[in-house]
Amino acid sequence: MKIIALYSIKGGVGKTATSVNLAYAAACEGKATMLCDLDPQGSASYYLRVRSARKFSQKTLLKGGQGIDKNIKGTDYEFLDILPADFSYRKLDLALGEGADSRGVLKEVFRRYRDDYDYVFLDCPPNITLFSENIFQAADFVVVPCIPTTLSSLTLEKLLDFFARKKLNQKKIIPFFSMVERRKKLHRATIDAATTNRKKPFFLSSQIPYLSEIERMGVGRVPVAVNQPNSQAARAYSELWSELRSQIDIDVE
Amino acid sequence: MKRSNLRLEFSLPASFSPVNLSVELGKSGHSSDERRASVKLSYFYDTFDWRLFKKNLLLVDQRDGCYLYRYDNGRPLAFQASKADGKMKFLGDFSDGPLRELLTPIIEMRVLLPLLALSTKSHPWEARNRDDKIVLRWQVQELDLRRSPTMDGVPAALFAGFPARGRAGHQAPPNPNPDPDPDLDSMIVAQQDELPAETARLRLLTLDQVTGYRKPWREARDYLRAQGLSPTANVAGLLYGWAGYQPGSYSQKLNISLKPHWSAQQAMLTILRHQYQVMHLNEAGIIADLDTEFLHDYRVALRRSRAALTQLKGVLSATEVKLFRGRLATLARMSNRLRDLDVYLLKKEEYRQMLPILLQSGLEPLFTMLELDRRRELRKLVGKMKGSDYRKIMAQWREFISDDAPLRAPSDPPSIEGSDRGVKEGVLPKTKALEPVMLLAEKTIARSCARLLKNGRAIGPDSPDQALHELRLDCKKIRYLFEFFSDLFPSPAISPLIAQTRKLQENLGTFNDLYVQQGALRKFLAESTGENELEKEPEKLVAMTAAIGGLISLLHRKQRQVRRQFTKIFKNFDACEYRRRFCPEK
């Protein structure tokens, strides 16, 4: 089982759309996949038409076990399950803070599922907190969508700093360009700079363009490849997934 | 999917309409849609001895490829893309991969037969909630089942060989108390009877839970139960049953469970009838040459029958026993050579692996020759088995073992046709027929055990190989007795002894096999060097001689090893404390 966190300090970078579409791409290959909606806004759950259970709270997540089992829901797609968001995640940081050494708690929670799923995607809330640290511990890879702008590059720097400070493994970080508009000079320049720059981490060469069909996912509430498997967006996500998968170098049986 | 969802399967009566289920779910606010129906053709495969079914496995060949399922939970274990052709398959017909890996240790050299052809029309349904999210799936499947006796290359007679039962209504409830004395006629008639209808139609409803949506699942399940439907635990078994098979029924093993209170005669006849049945069931497979194990099982049953006649003395009429011992020996001789050739050919890969690569190609002429030989031997055997002499022997043998007469009328023995044997004709000798089988079992086991001990203890490091060959025969005898009678004794008392005996027999068997193989190779070498064809190709002859020479010395070395192990294995047998319970020494 590989745990892939979709993470960005900055909001509105296409993080949720990416996690939904990547998880769907993985499931389409017949791999048992779980998408964990950790973002209190619950957009991933919404995209997949799933509501969270009323009784679910961060306590049950941290306890792991039965509590979370009952909350896993099958999506409309074969091989894709989802752990829906819950608004009480907002309080998660506080709950984690109560434990003395709470880093690695989330890792323990997911260990239970290592025989059940090939991939677990985590759609993470945008901020850096104790909860994020837990996520970075648990995840095998932290995939970071970046809009090719100066501000976005800065937030990536910030994340690297945070990893360094907390002695986390920076190799987990895999950035890629999201919401790319080729007609914008700034976008082209930022991407060019990143590709000529030999500094790690290297960006994935696949990019997700800025497309209205991705935005419209909120209306149709299905992954882009479901109704239009040959659309530009669907192809972009499928390419992103193949590249990511080969990087992850997974030997998932 | 690794996480398996809950699934229930119901067999549907004709009156049930799936629309009713959608109406029921509608009451709790779920809207149901019927999706596009699809039709697919598939074949169920298994070996003649149900090796997959007995391991809860089901091999299904359909349009996109071959699937191996666990049929108790519907979980797919392996898949291989291929085109469904409904033809027989050997391991070699599968390409390398997980499917072949899983099948290899189970089916080994056996052929997979297409037992069932299914045409399935599926009508999938989805129930959605107010968010238009799927919360329950179900499908109604209309299945047309056909036993596949008309498949290319599979003789209809073979399917007659599968014990079939009538298909009365739904499922005939299994008889919880099987007849303790199975009547031979009914056993045989059941196979030779008209097969049940070639095709059958069946409707199944499969209910699939969507993870995390328990309420609609419960509603649907409870509704179906209220309609009087109950879920089927074993769909594969149900389908095979509907097509008239008794899955898992054939076994070459003796599973007849004798009872201690039976008379010796009843027990002996039961053993012999079972052996007759095994022989009879395998005939079609031998004649069609489907795989080597039909002959193997046939010969094991034949050997057991002969062992019973030889060792269980004084139970059946002595004159007839003598007559049939001779006849069964004739039957066994008919296939001795063929079985030897089968064994060599099955060892082809093993032999190759034993030799360095340099020498391996030298074995080719040997195996070509063996294959030619085998074809000839098979033709001979098939000719004989189809002949009237063979049929007559089998019919008379069957008649003999069907006869319970001495049990009913000890003073009125069956007359032997055309018999002119001795003065005792018409008067039964002192008979053990009515003695309890327990007595017979204990006596015969003790006797053969004593002989085995005496001869075994006499073997020292300098004894000739011949002594071990003879001991092998003694050991085999006691093995057969255990096979016949182990049910009569409490398992904790007899199992350790059976295990020791098996080890001893394996050791002696391997020793013998290695000896015989060396002899056969030497003989082959001696015969083929004078052949004109190979004379013309001296290089080929040299390569072959080298390969066979190498093989003989390797086999010889192995034989020495096995011989060294003998002493220890025999000591273990001798010292086995349970041995004394069965063979008290005077």
Share of β-strand residues of chain A = 5-15%
Helix content of chain A: 40-55%
**Would you count the extended β strands of chain B for me?**
9
Q: Mean of residue pLDDT of chain A?
A: 85
Helix and strand composition category of chain A: alpha/beta
Order of helices and strands of chain A: EHEHHHEEHHEHEHEHHHHH
CATH topology of the largest domain in chain B: Hypothetical Protein Pfu-838710-001
Number of domains of chain B: 3
Total domains of chain A, how many? 1
CATH architecture of the largest domain in chain B: Beta Barrel
- The sequence of SSEs of chain B as H and E is EHEEEEEHEEHHEHHHHHHHHHHHHHHHH
Largest sheet of chain B: 9 strands, antiparallel
CATH superfamily of chain A: P-loop containing nucleotide triphosphate hydrolases
Largest sheet of chain A: 7 strands, mixed
Write the layout of secondary structure elements.
The complex is a heterodimer of chains A (253) and B (586).
Chain A: E1 2-6, H1 15-28, E2 33-37, H2 43-47, H3 58-63, H4 66-69, E3 73-74, E4 80-83, H5 92-98, H6 105-111, E5 119-123, H7 130-138, E6 141-146, H8 150-165, E7 173-177, H9 185-196, H10 212-215, H11 217-220, H12 224-227, H13 232-248
Parallel strand pairs in A: 1-5, 1-6, 2-4, 2-5, 6-7
Antiparallel strand pairs in A: 3-4
Helix pairs in contact in A: 1-13, 6-7
Chain B: E1 7-11, H1 18-26, E2 31-34, E3 38-46, E4 57-62, E5 65-70, E6 75-81, H2 98-107, E7 113-128, E8 134-147, H3 156-161, H4 184-192, E9 199-209, H5 214-226, H6 235-242, H7 264-287, H8 293-311, H9 318-346, H10 348-354, H11 357-360, H12 364-386, H13 388-402, H14 405-408, H15 437-457, H16 465-485, H17 491-528, H18 532-536, H19 538-575, H20 577-582
Helix pairs in contact in B: 7-8, 7-13, 7-15, 8-9, 8-16, 9-12, 9-13, 15-16, 16-17, 17-19
